[in-house]
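Structure record:
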Amino acid sequence: MPFKAQTITNADASLKNTGEAKKPALVVGIVVDQMRYDYLTRFSDKYTDGGFKRLIREGFNCEDANFNYIPTYTAVGHTSIYTGTTPENHGIISNDWYDKYLKKSIYCVDDDTYYTIGAEKGGKKSPNRMAVTTITDEVHLSQGRKGKVIGISIKDRAAILPAGHTANAAYWFEGGNDGKFITSSFYMNQLPKWVVDFNNSGIAEKYMNTTWNTLYDIATYTESIEDDNPFEGTFKGMDRPMFPYNLKKIRKDNGNFELLKAIPFGNSILEDFAEATVKGEELGKDAYTDFLAVSFSSTDYVGHRFGVDSKEVEDTYLRLDKDLSDFLTFLDTYVGKGNYLLFLTADHAAVQVPSYLQSLKIPAGYFDEDGFKEFLNTTAKSLYGTDAIIENVSNFQVFLNREKLDELHLDLNKVEQDLSDRIINFNGIYKVVTAHTLQSASFNDGILAALQQGYNQKLSGDILMVPYPATIDYSKTGSTHGSAYTY
């Protein structure tokens, strides 16, 4: 699936009737970062009855539910899920993007007007770049802000954006030497006691002093390729990407608690924290609907490092299935079965490792961004005598220097088209379209329609490019995402 790997909704039978639905005491939104839909079927034989299978069995499985846009990145996906719209409207056009007004690259949730709560750094954040409201905002507004809304994740953006503008709190995991869940002064001036207690419990240290081995006998992991292969990255301090991973031995070389984000135990500690959040805030315990937005991010880190066909990814999802089962059982007990409404989806999926596909003689490749920039500068010089009209190249977009165009008396639309006519000849480029075209034409389907829904007139570049399928700007080990292709 290209944009949201799947949507699964779970409602107890008491919520599914022909009359008026019972108002849930708690809504839980779960996003699994980088989850492909086929993970539901590929690993199904090893899933427990209480995790993914329970959601499908007791809920509704939407097999082809997408927001069609480019680019499919974490911040964009989470924002689209919770706002119900695309970057064209919500304004989160990537994780990082070039700000043509500030003349620098910015991060989606950075905000220097706030400060870190709970650590020395990592908390100068807010959702202020998101231009519209979220479903979590609307739940708050509909109740006079009497219910509680909280977002939690390993990643800051995956906690902040789903929680919306009116959230009571958003918490994310600060790695390095901290190993704590932190927040921003956008939400509060000090951490609640239950968060402090969780951080001081030693649970992060417990996970880091273990060994990551396969949950089941590795010989049964037949849905994945061989464990030792040249298409996977690995951790610093290790020569080969093979189980087992002695976390205590390699943690120092891999950023100490940063390593926890990159292994399945990052999902496990988030599940622990989710339970602590529900109990600490007494979610689902009064007359108003509360909303907990949970995003499991370690799946993305593992997928990037090892690729979608790896045994590491398979093991990560088998462990996540158990974490989900534990969380659902907890909700049944604490909130009450039939008193909560839960959905699970993904912000994006990921392509198979192109070098692996190439080894099978399947068309795939790697985009040479440095070579492209050199090509673009050379092209600009040949056409206009200077490359100063090229201001920035990022996220498969070209930003032109408007001041330089004015100085040279060059027409913006013509320059866009002239450069586009030449960019299409660069290796790995499948489609090129100008901002002028996206503003003046309407595309109803296909790649250009997705590009149009990801294009924000105020924020996006002047020329937008689409690479060929399975062509990525990434290392030759591990994999990534961002395109509109179905995977």
Observations:
- The chain has two domains: 7-355, 368-427+429-467.
- The domain at 7-355 is CATH 3.40.720.10 (Alkaline Phosphatase, subunit A).
- The longest helix spans residues 311-336.
- The chain is about 35% helix and 15% strand.
